[in-house]
Specification:
The chain is mainly alpha-helical. It is about 70% helix and about 5% strand.
Length: about 110
């Protein structure tokens, strides 16, 4: 079985690739710059490929990183959408509560 990358590393990588830098990703995720950098390094070590090129003024995505970012973004959206689906209600009274939760969660998914 292949090594599965940690979810935290995937989230940090997705944010850094989308926002164009570690500092902005750290702000969005409410963690330190160092934490994001470390998670990206863990992800690169797990995958065995460089996702960013380190430059004097920050990071630049490699071609592999760009393609992987597209896959990760899609996978995170799919998992977020699936998480929003309510479990089947066992009682008729729970139906409206489940429906309200689903509608609220769909709103949060659309914000992605």
């Amino acid at each position: 079985m292949k090594n599965i990358p940690p979810l935290t590393a995937l989230r940090c990588f997705e944010a850094a690739s989308r926002l164009g830098g570690v500092t902005l990703a750290a702000r969005e995720l409410h963690v330190t710059h160092s934490a994001v950098s470390q998670q990206i390094r863990i992800l690169e070590d797990t995958l065995g490929v460089a996702l960013f090129v380190r430059e004097a003024r920050g990071l630049r995505l490699t071609e592999e990183g760009r393609l992987y970012a597209l896959e990760i973004r899609s996978a995170l959206r799919t998992s977020q959408t699936r998480r929003c689906w309510p479990k089947p209600a066992r009682k008729r009274a729970n139906w409206s509560l489940q429906r309200c939760r689903r509608l609220l969660c769909i709103g949060c998914c659309l914000a992605l």
